Backbone:
């Protein structure tokens, strides 16, 4: 357990000092400022435009950061030969991977917390009608999404031998999981789809992680939600199950790798 | 990690994930379900393009609708610029069909468009059809119907106009777009008494822009005061 904590802490410190990470923080501040400018030029619906744009940009930066750092971290360790030094110590591959994954997830959630704090500050200063509860749930739901995205991006880091394929595969999988709900609708709705294929599609979409459940704040009016606590609970369970699944796949893939 | 226990664990996790998803779907349905049938209608009528569809499929219709709305408002700066009429129509319909639940944009966009475009009837009729499908008998639906009648009904009577004016301006806190619509309507029909009354209502509002009020005062100076 101490080994996992040490590796997680080390991962977090390394990435916080990284110029790429600082670049992502700067980009997120600029995007929130851009959302504010867009809201001011819109004339009507300033609050809606600011909230929708900010939510979009916050998530965009968080997801790009998650995919980028999670899909490249183990590859970076192998290419820099740092991994041989770490694994020569009494640290198992399981401890190493779990520590790395935890550190990376905390790193991205810290970035997400920073931008959400800025967003909260601006909405409070300008008197937009977003309750603290809404902002909290928004933060929680997107954090859960970040954990899931980190977990499947991490798989490609343990599997791939170079950065570019790992990044491409991670983003491809992200888009597939984002598209899944709408693709399920189009595939099962249109009569051109063969009748026997519809149950197959339904089954595939049932077992595949579906990111639409995290996108409630992008689809509907944020102020209309009455009960979010039980939904967030189920979402947390859903995230936990699929994150463990992807971590197990990472471990299997990393074990098969010759170092 | 041994092979068979790993595979069994993965299968159990997939099954658990599927079961959780079923429950999550029920909870998700309580928030409302985004109906893609309006997207299909938008595609069939060429109102939305591939970029709009991409954002809809990525579950971000609100964001893209806001972007389309900003583009629409940017093109209403010079309201008498005829060359921008098609662009205004395009962005208004894109906004409506990208996020069909953005009924406020359908109302205010429809009002702006009806006021400043000559070929307005079919576009406002499309918006009205969509608003009625999403939120029938809602405040927005009733107000958009009023805008449509005002701009499309050829033989509209004075009583009907007054009823519509009461519907759209009666609250005393109506947005400026409604006043602008009536201003253009009364000017086109040379209804000076109604125009004078409208101008007094506008001047009584503290929250309207000063340059707009200055234009109104200038126009009133050049008008014959009705008896």
Residues:
């Amino acid at each position: 357990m101490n080994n996992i904590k040490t590796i997680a802490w080390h991962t977090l410190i390394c990435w916080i000092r990284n110029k790429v990470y600082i670049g992502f923080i700067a980009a997120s501040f600029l995007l929130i400022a851009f959302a504010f400018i867009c809201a001011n030029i819109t004339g009507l619906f300033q609050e809606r435009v600011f909230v929708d744009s900010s939510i979009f940009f916050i998530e965009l930066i968080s997801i790009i950061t998650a995919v980028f750092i999670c899909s490249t971290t183990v590859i970076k360790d192998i290419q820099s030969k740092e991994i041989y030094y770490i694994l020569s110590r009494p640290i198992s591959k399981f401890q190493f991977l779990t520590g790395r994954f935890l550190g990376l997830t905390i790193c991205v959630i810290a970035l997400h917390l920073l931008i959400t704090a800025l967003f909260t500050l601006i909405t409070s200063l300008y008197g937009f009608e977003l309750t603290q509860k809404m902002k909290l749930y928004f933060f929680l739901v997107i954090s859960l999404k970040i954990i899931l995205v980190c977990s499947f991006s991490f798989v490609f880091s343990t599997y791939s031998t170079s950065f570019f394929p790992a990044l491409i595969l991670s983003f491809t999988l992200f888009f597939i999981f984002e598209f899944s709900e709408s693709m399920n609708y189009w595939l099962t709705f249109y009569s051109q789809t063969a009748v026997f294929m519809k149950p197959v599609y339904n089954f595939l979409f049932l077992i595949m992680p579906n990111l639409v459940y995290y996108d409630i704040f992008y689809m509907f009016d944020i102020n209309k939600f009455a009960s979010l606590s039980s939904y967030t609970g189920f979402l947390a369970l859903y995230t936990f199950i699929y994150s463990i699944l992807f971590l197990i796949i990472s471990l299997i893939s990393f074990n098969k790798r010759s170092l | 990690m041994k092979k068979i226990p790993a595979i069994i664990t993965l299968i159990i996790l997939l099954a658990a994930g599927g079961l959780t998803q079923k429950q999550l779907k029920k909870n998700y349905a309580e928030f409302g379900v985004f109906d893609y049938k309006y997207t299909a209608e938008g595609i069939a009528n060429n109102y939305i393009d591939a970029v709009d569809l991409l954002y809809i499929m990525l579950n971000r219709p609100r964001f893209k609708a806001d972007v389309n709305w900003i583009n629409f408002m940017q093109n209403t700066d010079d309201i008498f610029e005829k060359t921008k009429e098609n662009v205004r129509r395009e962005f208004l319909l894109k906004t409506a069909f990208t996020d069909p639940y953005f009924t406020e944009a359908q109302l205010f966009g429809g009002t702006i468009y009806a006021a400043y475009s000559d070929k307005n009837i079919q576009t406002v009729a499309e918006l009205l059809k969509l608003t009625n499908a999403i939120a029938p008998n809602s405040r927005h639906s009733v107000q958009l119907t009023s805008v449509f009648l005002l701009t499309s009904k050829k033989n509209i009577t004075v009583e009907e106009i007054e009823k519509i004016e009461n519907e759209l301006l009666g609250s005393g806190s109506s947005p400026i777009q409604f006043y602008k619509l009536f201003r253009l309507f009364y000017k086109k029909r040379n209804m000076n008494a109604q125009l004078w009354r409208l101008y007094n209502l506008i001047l009584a509002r503290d929250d309207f822009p000063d340059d707009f009020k200055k234009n109104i005062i200038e126009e009133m100076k050049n008008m014959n005061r009705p008896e």
